[in-house]
TrEMBL record:
Transmembrane parts of this sequence: 7-25, 31-48
Domain of life: Bacteria
Organism from which the protein derives: Paenarthrobacter histidinolovorans
Pfam families reported for this sequence: DUF4229 (PF14012)
Name this polypeptide is given: DUF4229 domain-containing protein
Length: 103
């Protein structure tokens, strides 16, 4: 995921100065954004292939189904609370595999 963030920051670093330049040339804000976006895309596509490939690989891995799920702090707390409850009370079973509303 770091590679994706790095590539996104490179593209943003290209976009912002180009947008400012086009805005200062008074082409209008929407055309300035479009022109800057197209130029940032072209420059990053031509000159940052290694970073683009790394970002693509990171995204492919993330959405392949093999990656570990990202858990929020609340989910981690809930899981730890359930684990400690089960450890303290072995006769209690927690079944999170069922969908809500099913028996």
């Amino acid at each position: 995921m770091v590679a994706f963030l790095k590539y996104s920051l490179i593209r943003l670093a290209l976009f912002v100065p180009l947008f400012i330049i086009f805005a200062l040339l008074q082409v209008g804000l929407l055309p300035a954004a479009i022109f800057a976006g197209l130029m940032a895309f072209a420059i990053s596509y031509l000159f940052f292939q290694k970073q683009r490939d790394a970002a693509t690989a990171a995204m492919r891995e993330r959405f392949s189904g093999r990656a570990k799920p990202i858990r929020t702090a609340g989910e981690v707390e809930d899981a730890e609370a359930e684990d400690s409850l089960v450890e303290k009370n072995p006769d209690i079973a927690v079944n999170n595999d069922k969908r809500p509303g099913t028996v």
